[in-house]
């Protein structure tokens, strides 16, 4: 695990996370490198391991990876001297992810629609569109900061539904 991503003494007991009022709060600052990106992705996967709904886990991991990649690639241009700040708040009801880069920012309303006929065959440019499909998305700080919020499905996993 990358030293920039502390475990913060987090409770690793899955039974504790099933109590009705648990919450996980993590704050990370990582350099814009592929090594840090991979470490952050792996650590986030550990954080959401006990989210009971499989589709929530898949979409949360995808959204996290997309937001961090956008910050490193488009915001910081993979400059290792620029950091990405990641704030994670997980509760039984919802997950909120905030990712901030040190880049120049952008206007998310000016991003072209990837479903328009002239862009339909493009191989990139769908990340923001997809994030909006799975999360409530809010940009701030002139586009340098994105907050993704997702209400979690309260369905129990199949092995507990009996």
Structural class: alpha+beta
- Let me know the number of strands: 5
- Poorly predicted regions are none
What is the level-2 CATH architecture name?
2-Layer Sandwich
Biggest β-sheet: count, sense, barrel? 5 strands, antiparallel
Explained architecture:
The chain has 162 residues and is α+β, with helices and mostly antiparallel strands. The mean pLDDT is 88. A hairpin with a 3-residue loop joins strand 2 and strand 3. Helix 1 runs antiparallel to helix 2. It is globular. The protein contains three helices and five strands, in the order βααββαββ. The termini are far apart. It has a single domain, classed as Histidine kinase-like ATPase, C-terminal domain (Heat Shock Protein 90, 2-Layer Sandwich), CATH 3.30.565.10. A five-stranded antiparallel beta sheet has the order 1-2-3-5-4, covered by helices on one side.
Strands, helices and their partners?
Blueprint: E1 24-31, H1 34-47, H2 54-75, E2 83-90, E3 94-100, H3 127-134, E4 136-140, E5 145-151
In a few lines, what is going on in this structure?
With 162 residues, the chain is of the alpha+beta class.
List keywords for this structure.
alpha+beta, globular, Heat Shock Protein 90
